[in-house]
Every structure is written in C-alpha cells, then in structure tokens.
Amino acid sequence: MSEAGAEDYILIIDGVTKSFPGGVEAVRGFSARVWRREVMVIMGPSGSGKSTLLRCLNGLERPDSGTIIVDGVPLDEDKAHRNQIRQEVGMVFQSFNLFPHLTVLENINLAQVRVRKRTREEATARSMELLQRVGIAEKADVYPAQLSGGQQQRVAIARALAMAPKVMLFDEPTSALDPEMINEVLDVMRNLARDGMTMVVVTHEMGFAREVADRVILMDEGQIVETGTPAEIFEHPQQERTKRFLNQIL
Amino acid sequence: MITIPAVRSFGRRLFRSPWRDILEYALLLVFVFALVAISSQRLGYYWQWYRVPRYLFTVQQGQLVPGELIQGLLYTFRIAGVSLVLSLIIGLSAALLRLSQSLMGTALARIYLEVIRNTPLVVQIYLLYFVIGPILGLGRFASAVLALSLFEGSYMSEILRAGIVSLHHGQWEAAYSLGLSTFDTYRDVILPQAVRRILPPLTGEVVSLVKNTSLVSLVALNDLSMQARVVSADTFLTFEIWFTTALIYLAILVPLSLFARWVERRVAIPS
C-alpha cells in the first residue's frame, strides 16, 4: 500500500488548523488520508475538535491553515471548487436539521431538483428508493415533526445520499437520540458501509466503531492522540490518554 | 349560612359559556350608545343620518352608483394594493441587504432604515411630492405610493429580518451541505419558514399601511379620507361622515385581520 498514489485517496487532510475568536484552538495540525470505501471513526472527549474538523471537511468552517483535497479537488478560495465539494460531500448532523416546512419526500427531493437539476419525477423515484433503503418509505408524505428522532435522522441520511455523495460525514448522528432509537440509525449506517460508501464518522458508539470502522482515530485537544484499527485501539491502546478515554466511555 | 348549589353551579356554567362573552359585548354596546347619546345631547348636535347613504351609494336609472365615499374607498384600495406589493419588495431587499456580507449593502440598508423610521410619514410624503417628485418627474399618485412604500418597507424589513435570524443556523448548514445556492436556500428553506413565523406582525403592518393611506389626502389624492373631508365640508355632516368613514375602515380591516389568521392556520406546519 505504500506505493499508492494520491488518486487512491478520496480525502486528503494535511496540517489543518482552526481556531475561533477568543483564541480557542479547536484543531491543531490534523493530517489524515482516507481511502475510497474506507470507514474512519473519530473519537475523543467533547471539545477535542472532532466536530470542528468534520465541519472543515465540507467547508462549513474555513481552516486557518492546511490543505483539504476531496477527490482531487482542493477546498480553497475558488468558489467553483467549494461548490463542487459541498455537493459531493454529504453531511449528517447531530440535530438532523431537516426542513420542518417540507414533507419527508420534499426534503429529499429539494436538492436533487435544484442542484442536480433532476425532474420532479426522477427525484421522487430516487427519493422513494432511498426511503425504502432506510426503511421508512411509508412516511414519505408526513412532516419531520411527526417522526421520531430516529426516523428523522434516517430521513436526513437519505436526504444526503440523494445527492450521490462521494464521502459521507456524520457528526455524532446518534447523540441526540433516545437509546432505543440509536440502533435503527446505526443499522442504516452499517448497511451504507457494507455497500462501500466512504464515511468519516464522529461518534462515541464503540460497538459501531468496532464492527464497521477500518480505522479509529482518537483525538484530544485538536490533535491525533492515536490511530489504528479498532482492534489495535480498543484492545491494545498504546497511549495513556487513549486508555483513560476508553475507560471513561465504557 | 345558606348555600344554594343549583344557583352556584348555574353561575359557574354561565361564567364559562359563550353567553358570558355575548353578555359582556351587549353591555359594552349599551355603554357606548349611552355615551354617544349623552354627549350629543350635551353638544346640542342635530343628527341627520338620513343624509348619509347617498354618499355611499345612489340608485340612478335602476343602477347602483357608488357615491363619493365608496369611490374614495376604491381609490384607497388602489393605493394600498400598489403600496403593499412595493413595500414588500423594498422590505425584503432591505432585509437581505442588511443581512448580506457586503459592507456597502449593510450600510445602505442601515441608513435607509434609520432615516425612514426616524422621520414622520407626513414629512416624507411632502418631501417626495414637492421636492423629489418633480425632480424625478413623478406624478401625485406615484410619489404618494412611493412615500408610503418606503415607509412601510422599512418596518417590514425589520420584521422580515427578525424572522430570518430567528431560524436555527442548522437550516443554513443543511442547505449548504446539500449544495443549494444562496438564492435557493432563501427561496426554498429560509423564507417559507420565516414568513410563517412573522405572519402576525406582518398583518399588523398591512393594517397600518391601509390606515396610513389616509395621509395621502394631504397631497390631494381622492382617497377615502379626502372624500370624507370634502363631503363633510360640503354638507356640515361632520360627525355622521367621519363616523361612517371610521366604520368603513373598520369594516375592511377587521376581515383582513381575520383572513390573515385563517392563512396562518392554513399554512401552519403539521406536528
């Protein structure tokens, strides 16, 4: 694998730093490369900069320095590049962020019609297929507020998938859910990984990470503490910080 | 101590039933009429209501012809209608400018808002009609409508802005991460939600726009208030004409408010 060229990586993150007004350094020189079809899980205590890093990857935050390249396209000041990247990087939020005034179907159709320029019929066909895939096709015509948290998050995943993204980012997708709904969302994510979607997931769900992740990164204070396969990280952590963190979430 | 449960429960039922509202309303009406009757007696005013109807409608050759007051009302509708559309456009533009990243844009919007909201509408109407109108070649109707629209637009812009910023930033982020353009985000995501939230204050502004059309009579436009002024000067039916005029305004604005409430309920997001 060492002779792999840059084109084999779908996501190249190099020396990304981001601080906020007030001098808080959220991300301090983060570098990682993500393969096609790889599932990368980022863990770490709250305030460790994992969400900020994720938000940098699709341009929701602008890094102070460092390079981010998505499938060969650099995320820079060029507006065409930024637009291309945010269309090709899907994002799932902790708080779902569905559009409350639109039905489930309209939520999933909107960007397909406006950005991908599909006809309403094409968009609806794809949306229904995706709703089937996340297991709530019967809810197509209801409004988000009429759904449970788990169902809303599954709609949000379908909405992001509708754009046929090359990478999916998940920002603590189950943290706002009641315990009994966490699994229905994780199931959808497991299937997605099995189908070969490239995913970067910020989560505290160890079971999910152990089962699905190709690589686990432990972050603290804006930096990588340790990185390795789930087995390496969970069974044989090398760093004292990793051990302490794992003890806390177990 | 004597207790009469039946009477007490009857009282309680009355207290909670719609009859209570009706009773209160009837009492209020009696009170108002008594007040009017007493004060007109004290004034020694000679009421001649029978002379009023001809200024509303007359029948000529079997046809209903609108009198001066109704003609004025129709003119008021025209002014209010054009001003409403224009003030919504101005208000939305100013709100978006104010929220834009452009320093120039926000400065422009701020200056517009501060100038318009801190000077009286009457002064603005005069300025536009006597000074700016002739320079730009605006007629009487155009300059009055423009003054009204600029005035109401400034209030609508602040209401709209409040509605827009009240939305959770997650809505922007979701739209952004789906690749929607700023225009699409406003049109499909932000404004439909913002407008639902601000319907009540927006209705209030529409009502005050209609009422403020009465000020255009200052530049001799033949709206309802102007006609009322002319008719009452001609006939000396001061009280009758102005009471009637007030009732006409009331008769169009109350249904307008009810209509707005109906719209509000219709577009409410099911939950």
Architecture blueprint of SSEs:
The complex is a heterodimer of chains A (250) and B (271).
Chain A: E1 9-20, E2 24-35, E3 39-43, H1 50-57, E4 65-70, E5 73-74, H2 79-88, E6 89-92, H3 104-114, H4 120-133, H5 149-161, E7 167-171, H6 179-194, E8 198-202, H7 206-212, E9 215-220, E10 223-228, H8 230-235, H9 240-249
Parallel strand pairs in A: 3-8, 3-9, 6-7, 7-8
Antiparallel strand pairs in A: 1-2, 1-4, 4-5, 9-10
Chain B: H1 5-16, H2 18-43, E1 57-60, E2 63-66, H3 68-99, H4 103-117, H5 121-136, H6 140-165, H7 169-177, H8 182-212, H9 224-235, H10 238-266
Antiparallel strand pairs in B: 1-2
Helix pairs in contact in B: 3-4, 3-6, 3-9, 4-6, 5-6, 6-8, 7-8, 8-10, 9-10
As residue ranges, the low-confidence spans of chain B are none
The SSE order of chain A reads: EEEHEEHEHHHEHEHEEHH
Largest interface: A-B, 28 and 20 residues
Helix content of chain B: over 70%
Gross geometry of chain B: flat
Radius of gyration of chain A: 18 Å
Classify the helix fraction of chain A into a percent range: 25-40%
Number of strands of chain B: 2
Q: Major sheet of chain B: order of its strands?
A: 1-2
**What Rg of chain B do the Cα atoms give?**
25 Å
Judged by helices, strands and strand pairing, the structural class of chain A is alpha/beta
Task: Count every beta strand of chain A, where a strand is a DSSP E run of 2 or more residues.
Answer: 10
**Which spans of chain A have pLDDT < 50 for at least 5 consecutive residues?**
none
